[in-house]
From TrEMBL:
The chain crosses the membrane at residues 33-56, 94-116, 128-149, 164-183, 217-244, 264-286, 315-338, 380-398, 410-435, 455-474, 507-530, 553-574. It is a multi-pass membrane protein. Residues 1-24 are annotated as: Disordered. The lineage of its organism: Bacteria, Bacillati, Actinomycetota, Actinomycetes, Micrococcales. This is Iron ABC transporter permease. Pfam families: BPD_transp_1.
């Protein structure tokens, strides 16, 4: 009598032992070893990337601030923390972050309701328009609002030039999309029957909002507010352009102490202070994000959005959105575009754009603006590729649900580690590269002379955005789909290819757009690392602003418009690719 061999049941997650060929339970097959090796590599590659290009440079720079003559010296803490200037900068940083967060949430909630709970012609375009400011280079945002606030500008009468108020307005412009997309993504999945039942029982609209809708949205609001606070606290380009010599934050002080004075001790202490604030914000964001993902899992598919109605509530939301979008987004961008056509002599024309083919007045630049744009596009493409590979692997690992508590904590820790680059000064990362990467890991090659250094630094900043865009989509996939595919004989690779990838494809397209756009506009680390003959466009714009001459300033305006148009085009294409089936936190 023949004996049938036990059938192997493939495990798509690679986490369970399969029956061996001899029928012995728990034996390890060659296929299992391959699967385990693949998952191990998927974890190891991102960790090596984070360790080599983030943790090591940052730790080395901070350590240099606390080592004197080969011995540990912590007197820098006492010295820096005893300065009144330090606490003034901390106070300004917290003030701008708190104000920017509160106003962003208040302005973003009505916009989120309109874009995710109501349908109307042009809704997809308006979603893309609201997203564009988030990925605009910070230098462009600073130039756009500076053009409004200067004497003679449209809003010059408000006296917001080089003030806290002006910076907060620019930060709200920059972070509005975080609130709209994060809260809107949950809002469109809320079951409307609870609010309808409360209204049917006689509750006023304000009470329904306060007692039903707001508590349901709380996880998304907390997550969005924490991320906005983080972005406001670590804003660099906006503060550098709008703050001028009279206003500074912890971030700009790190840049000044490092680049202008080589005062690594003070920069190290300030970096640690900043990291404490960042860690608190990340912890709150992670908690809110976890609750938000649980809520998304519970409510499942999107609830049907309703057409706009002729009601007082919808009319108020439309009016608020019109003011926010018109006054906060279109006015600065439109003013920037209009002013870019005003030449040095005051006449309107194309003089500023014609000058982009030169090196500016008195040779202010080493490359032309068009050459800098080519450098930016090339660098961003490489950075985007690195970020998508590394971030995609992190999202893939983070989407798994191991049974063991220790494994679950490890997955959560991996996700949290890759959010840290969002909160550590890009200046610290850039200068840390110069300190550590002369011969990394003993390799006889000075990586600091390589053209690869800038895209690597930009990808460090872009990886968290890729993770936050792709991970929620992968986590929303029902694990039973993977189990069914595995039971039907699909290999782990086939499960990833046929289940995970198709469902995450559109969010991956959006992640590519985010990574490319963010890399295109990165300024903090790039300003440290870029070679003069390979300047990127944000660096060129900042240099033009800092040089005297009406022609240089006009070129800066025109170059900002060019960079804004390129960035907006990338994001509009990514948003169109995403459609209504994409996901992600942003």
């Amino acid at each position: 009598m023949s004996v049938r061999k036990p059938r192997e049941v493939p495990d798509p997650g690679g986490s369970r032992a399969l029956a061996g060929r001899d029928g012995t339970a728990g034996s390890v097959t060659g296929r299992q070893l391959v699967v385990a090796a693949c998952w191990g590599a998927a974890v190891l590659v991102p960790l090596l990337f984070l360790g080599l290009f983030f943790a090591w440079p940052v730790a080395a720079l901070v350590a240099r601030g606390f080592v004197a003559d080969g011995a540990l010296d912590l007197s820098g803490f006492t010295e820096v923390l005893s300065r009144p200037r330090t606490w003034r900068l901390v106070g300004l940083t917290l003030a701008q972050s708190a104000l920017g967060t509160v106003i962003s949430v208040a302005a973003g909630l009505p916009v989120a309701f309109l874009l995710y709970r109501r349908t109307f012609p042009g809704r997809t375009f308006l979603r893309g328009l609201v997203t564009v400011p988030f990925v605009l280079p910070t230098v462009v945002v600073g130039v756009a609002f500076r053009n409004l606030f200067v004497s003679g500008g449209v809003l010059g009468f408000l006296g917001l030039e080089e003030t806290l108020g002006g910076i907060v307005v620019a930060l709200v412009f920059f972070n509005l999309a975080v609130v709209v997309r994060t809260v809107g993504g949950l809002w469109e999945r809320l079951d409307p029957r609870a609010a309808e039942a409360a209204a049917a029982l006689g509750a006023a609209p304000a009470r329904v909002w306060r007692t039903v809708t707001l508590p349901a949205l709380a996880p998304a609001i907390i997550s969005a507010a924490s991320v906005v606070f983080l972005f406001c606290a670590t804003a660099f380009g906006v503060v550098m352009v709008l703050g001028g010599p009279r206003y500074g934050t912890v971030e700009t002080e790190i840049w000044s102490r490092t680049k202008d004075f080589l005062d690594l001790r003070s920069a190290a202490v300030l970096s640690i202070l900043q990291l404490v604030v960042v860690s608190v914000a990340l912890a709150l964001a992670a908690r809110g994000r976890s609750r938000r993902e649980q809520a998304l899992h519970l409510v499942g598919e999107r609830s049907a959005a309703r057409p706009l109605r002729r009601s007082p509530g919808d009319a108020a939301v439309v009016s608020i959105t019109a003011v926010v979008v018109g006054g906060l987004i279109l006015l600065p961008l439109g003013g920037l575009a209009l002013r870019s056509f005003q030449g040095p002599d005051g006449a309107f024309g194309l003089a500023n754009y014609v000058a982009l083919g030169t090196t500016g007045e008195r040779d202010a630049l080493t490359v032309t603006v068009w050459e800098a744009l080519g450098n930016s596009l090339s660098t961003a493409a490489w950075a985007c590729g690195i970020a998508v590979v590394v971030g995609g692997l992190v999202a893939l690992i983070g989407s798994r649900r191991p049974r063991a508590p220790g494994a679950r904590r490890a997955v959560s820790l991996l996700d949290g580690l890759f959010m840290l680059p969002l909160g550590v000064s890009a200046v610290t990362v850039g200068f840390g590269f110069l300190v550590t990467l002369d011969q990394p890991l003993g390799i006889q090659y000075d990586l600091r002379t390589s053209a690869a250094l800038v895209p690597i630094a930009q990808s460090v900043v872009a990886v968290p955005l890729v993770v936050r865009t792709v991970l929620p989509v992968l986590r929303a996939i029902d694990p039973r789909l993977r189990e069914v595919a595995g039971t039907l004989g699909a290999s782990p690779g086939a499960v990833l290819r046929t289940v995970d990838l198709p469902l995450a494809a559109r969010s991956l397209g959006l992640a590519i757009g985010f990574a490319f756009a963010v890399s295109l506009g990165e300024f903090g680390a790039t300003s440290f690392l870029v070679r003069p003959d390979a300047d990127t466009l944000p660096v060129v714009i900042f240099r033009l602003i800092g040089r005297p001459g009406a022609e240089n300033y006009g070129m800066a305006l025109a170059a900002s418009v060019v960079l804004a148009v390129v960035t907006a085009t990338v994001m509009m294409l990514a948003e169109r690719l995403r459609g209504d089936d994409g996901g992600g936190e942003f």
